[in-house]
Amino acid sequence: MISYIIRRSLLAIPMLLLVSLIAFFILTLPPGDYMTSYQNQLTSQAGLTTAEAEEMANEMRQKYGLDKPFLVQYYNWIKNIVTKGDFGYSFFYSKSVSAVIWSRMGYTLLIAGLCHFISVFAGVFIGIFSATHKYSFADYSFTILAFLGVSIPAFFLALFMMYIFSFELGMGVGGLFSDEYIMAPWSIAKVWDLIKHLWLPVIIVGFAGTARNMRVMRSNLLDVLGLQYIQTAKAKGLKNKTVIYKHAVKNAIKPIVMSMGSALPFLITGEMITSIVLDLPTTGPAFYNALVNQDMYLAGSFLMMIAVILVIGNLLADIALAWVDPRVRYN
Amino acid sequence: MNKLNQEALVEVKNLKTYFYTEEGVVKAVDGVDFEIYPGETLGVVGESGCGKSVTSLSIMRLVESPPGRIEAGEINFGGRDLTKIPEKEMRKIRGNDISMIFQEPMTSLNPVYTVGDQIMEAIILHKKVDKKEARRQAIDMLQKVGIPLPEQRVDEYPHQLSGGMRQRVMIAMALSCDPQLLIADEPTTALDVTIQAQILELMNSLKESYGMAIMMITHDLGVIAEVSDRVAVMYAGKVVEYTDVDTLFDDPKHPYTWGLMNSIPKLDKDVDRLEAIPGSVPSPLNFPEGCKFNTRCPLAEGKCFEEEPPLEDTDGEHMVRCWRYEDLEEIKKRGERIYEDRGVQK
Amino acid sequence: MKKEEAKERKKYLSNKEKIWRRYKKHKLGMIGGTIVILLLILSIFAPFFSPYDYRKPDYEGAYMPPQPLNFIDEEGDFSITPFTYGVEQGMDPETWARTFEINPDQKYRLQFFVEGWEYELFGIFESNIHLFGVEEGGTFHLFGTDKLGRDILSRIIFGSRISIFIAFFGSLLSAVVGSLIGGISGYFSGKVDLLIQRVIEMFQLFPQLPLMMALSAAIPTTWPPILIFIGIVVVLSLIQWTFLAREVRAIVLSYREQEFVKAAQALGANHLYTILKHVIPNCFSHIIVVMTLTIPRLILAESTLSYLGLGIQPPMVSWGVLLQEASNIQTIGQHPWIMIPGAFIFFTVLSINFFGDGVRDALDPKSN
C-alpha cells in the first residue's frame, strides 16, 4: 500500500505542473495586464496625463518582468516557487502572494473545515434517519429540503440570509468580526465575537453539503439494507439498531468517506462565493479581486494551491477507504 | 405426535402470510400446516415462488413488514406461539433456539468484519460470555464445520474464503449457540455439485452430534432425497403433499408431485421419455378459482375449478390436497402417463 | 376473456409507453415538467408576456415597489376584474428618499391582450399585443422596478431566455464533446485512451468554480454580446464534459467486443461510422440523464458568474445580471424586491431537478 501511495504522489507532480501551466496561461489571456488597469488608475485618480501614465506603467512592467514573453514569465514564476518558495507579488494588495494567501488561509480553512464536519455529521445522521423512516413525513420534508439545498444558488442564499438577518431580525452581519475586534488581540471575547459572525456563513455553505450527503447516505443505506448479509445479521437475533449501525452503516458510509478527500477543495471554493457576498477576510474575495484585476501571480498561485489540496485530499481519502474497507487493503 | 410419540418441536398451523403491494395482495403463504419433530429433517420442496422461503421467514419473523404480514395462523414452539410473542422475546430465539442459513454464501456475510467477529457476535449476544471465551468457541466451531487452520481463518475476511468455505462459516455461525432447529433456505443451490455434497454431509453429521432438527428448503429433489426424513411439497402458497421421504418418492399421490418425480431422470428407472409439467406457476396476484394447480393439471375437471381441495389424510401419515388423488392411483396402477410427451430422449 | 386480452396487450407495451407510464407516476417529476414547459413558453414568447419593454428606462419611476392586484377597494367593494391603484411620487421630508404613495381614487383595471410596446418575434412577427396590462394611464409593476425604472417582471421574463438557453447550449455542447471524446477514447483504446484518461483526470483535478471564474475572466468584456454568450457557453461546457466522457467511454468499451461492431468492421465500414451507427443510439438515455443533471448546474453557474460580473454583460440580461444590482446590502434593504430574480433561479432549478428526477426514474427505475 505504501508503494501505491508513493506511485500516486509521483504521478501527481507532472500533472500539477501541467495544471499550473494551464492556469497561468488562462490568467494571461485577457488583453492587457495589471499595469493596464494601473495605468487607468493613474490617469483617472492620480491625474496624470496619458503619456505620463503610460510611461510609469511601462516602467512597472519592466520592473516586474511583465513585458517578457509568456513562457519566460511562467518559467520564472515556477522557478521561484520551487527554489525560494516565492509565489510572486500581488499588485492589487501590494504584498507578496504568500503574505496575502497566508493571512487569509487560516479563516478559509476554519470555515471550510467547520462546514465539512457539520455537513458530514448532519448529512449522515439525517440520511440514516430518513432511510430508517422511509416515506414518513420527516423523510419527505428532508428530501424536499435536500432538493432545496442543491437548487438555491449559493450567492443568492447568502444575499437573502444577509437581508433577513440585517433587516428583519436586526442583527449585524458581514465580515468575521465586529468593528471593535478586527484589530484587537485574541481574547475570549474576540473568539465569541468570531463565533457570532461565523455561524451564518457556516450554515449557508454547509447547507448544500449537508443536502448532498443526506441524499447519498439515504440512498446507500437503503441499498445496503436490501443486501443478504443484513438478513443474516437479523437472523442472529441482533437488535435492529445494532443491525443498522454496526452492519449497515459501516458499509453504506464508504462513498461518503471516499468523497471526503475531494470535499475539501469543494468546500474552499464553496465558501468562496459566500465570502465574496459577505465580505469575509478569506481567500475567496482575494481570488476574485485577483481575477478582476489581472493580478496573475495571486490568482495562479491560488489555483495551483487548490489543485494540490485536491491531490492530497484524494490521497487521504484513499487511505481512509483502505482503513474502512478491508477488501481494498488486500488488493 | 409422530410415530415415536414425540411432541412436535415446531407446529405450524394454518399459517397465512400476505404481502400488500401496489398491484394487489400477494398471498405468498395461504394456509400452511406442518410439524417438525426433534432431531429430524423436514424437507420443503417446490418451485420458486411457491412460498417456501416466506414460510421459513415467517417462522423467524423476518418477513418485511410492511409490505408483508402474518395474517393468521399459529407457529408453536417451546410452548409459545411465535406469531404472538413480543419482538424482544423473538430476538432471544433467533440465532439461539432457531437459526437460519441462506442461499447465497457470497453475499451472506458482512464484508467489513472478520469471519470470527461475525461468529462471535452471536455467541456473545446469546451466551453472554466474554470476548476471549467467544473467540475460543468460534475457533472451535470453525473446526467442527471442517475448516482447516481455524486459528488463522478466524481473523480473515469473507472475501478471502471460497463459496464453500463461506457456507461452512454460515453453518458455524448458525450452530454456535446450539439451536434446536436449523432452517436452511437453499443452502447448496449456489454451490458446485461436489461442494454441495460436502455441505449436505456436514449438515447431516452435525445434526446427529447436535441432536437438532433441520428444515431444508430446496427446489432440488436430489437434495430432498439425500437428507430428508419427511417432506412437505408446496405449491402456490399451500402444502399439497406431506409424508415421509420414501413414500413420497415411491408413491406420490398428488399430480404435481407425480409430475416433479417423473420429470427428472432416475438411474434406477428405465423410461423412454420424461414427463414434464406444462405451463408455469400462476402469478400470485392472479390465482385461479378452486385448486391452484388447475391451470396445469391434466386431471383437472369440474370441482377442481370451483373449490379448493382440503389437505386430506390418506392413510395416517400421508396427506394430499387433491380431489382426484384416488383417480391418480388408478392411472398409476395401469402404468399410464398423465403428462404429454415432451420428447426428451433417455 | 376481456381480462386476458388486456393482460396480453399489457405485455407488449412498447418501451416508450412504459417509460411514459413510469414518469407519470412520479408526481414531483410531473409538476417539475409542467413548470419547465410553462417556463419555456414564457421565455420563447417573452415579448408577448412582458407588459413593459425591458430595456426602456424610466428615471421617474425608479425603484417603485411591487404593485399588487387588488380585488377589493378601499370601500370594501369587490370587483371581479382586479385593478391597481395609481401611484404618485413624493419625497420623504426627513430622509429625502423617494416615496410612492397609493392614490386610492385612481383605479386601473387589468386587461388582457392589450396593446403596448412594439416588438418583433423571431425576427418575423411584428406585433404590439401583450398578454396583460392595465388601463391607459396606470402602471402595473408586479415585481416593482429597478434603479433605472425598468419593469422587473419584464426583465425577468427576458432574462429567462438567456439563463435557460445558455445552460441548455452549454449542456448540449458538453454532452456532444464529452460523448465524442469518450467514444473515441473507448473505441481506440491503447495509447489514445490512456492519454485522454489523463486529460480527464486533470480536468477533474481542477476545482470547478475557480476554473470557471478564471476562464470567464479571460473573456473580454468589450466583445459583442453574442460573442460573450458563445464564450460563456464554451466555458460552461468545458467544466461539465468529463461526466459524459467517462460514461460513454464505458459504454463504448463494453460494445467494442460485441459481434455487430465486428461485423460492421468486416464489411469495411470505417471507424467513425461504426461508432456513430451502433453505439450512439444506445447512449441516448445516458445523455438525457446527464443533461437533466447539468442544465440546472449550469443555470446556477451562469447566474453566479454574471452576478460577479464575469459572465453575461449588460445590456444583455440574464437572471444573474439582474442580481448585480442586489450586491449592496443597503440597496437590498431599501428595495428588497430586486432580489426576486433569485427566487426565479431557485424555482427554475428546483423544477428542472424534480423533472430530471422523474425522467431519470422513468428511464432507469431503481428499486427504492
TrEMBL record, chain A:
Keywords on this record? Answer: Cell membrane, Membrane, Transmembrane, Transmembrane helix, Transport
Task: Give any Gene Ontology cellular component.
Answer: plasma membrane
Name of the featured protein: Peptide/nickel transport system permease protein
What SUPFAM superfamilies does the record tag this protein with?
MetI-like
Q: Where is the ABC transmembrane type-1 domain?
A: 105-321
* PANTHER family recorded: INNER MEMBRANE ABC TRANSPORTER, OLIGOPEPTIDE ABC TRANSPORTER, PERMEASE PROTEIN
Where are the membrane-spanning stretches? 9-29, 107-130, 142-165, 194-211, 256-278, 298-324
Q: Which family does it belong to?
A: Belongs to the binding-protein-dependent transport system permease family.
Entry annotated with the keyword Zinc: no
Q: How does it sit in the membrane?
A: Multi-pass membrane protein
* GO biological process terms held by the UniProt record: transmembrane transport
In its UniProt entry, the species of origin is given as Halanaerobium saccharolyticum
Q: According to its UniProt record, where is this protein located?
A: Cell membrane
Keyword Cell membrane tagged: yes
From TrEMBL, chain C:
GO cellular component terms listed in the entry, alphabetical order: plasma membrane
**Is Secreted a UniProt keyword of this protein?**
no
Q: Which organism is it from?
A: Halanaerobium saccharolyticum
Which Pfam families did the record assign? BPD_transp_1, OppC_N
Membrane topology, from the record: Multi-pass membrane protein
Q: Which residues form the ABC transmembrane type-1 domain?
A: 160-356
InterPro entries registered for this protein in UniProt: BP-dependent_transpt_permease, MetI-like, MetI-like_sf, OppC_N
Task: Reply yes or no: does the keyword Transmembrane apply.
Answer: yes
Q: Protein name, please?
A: Peptide/nickel transport system permease protein
Question: What compartments host this protein?
Answer: Cell membrane
The UniProt similarity line reads: Belongs to the binding-protein-dependent transport system permease family.
Q: Which residues form a coiled coil?
A: none
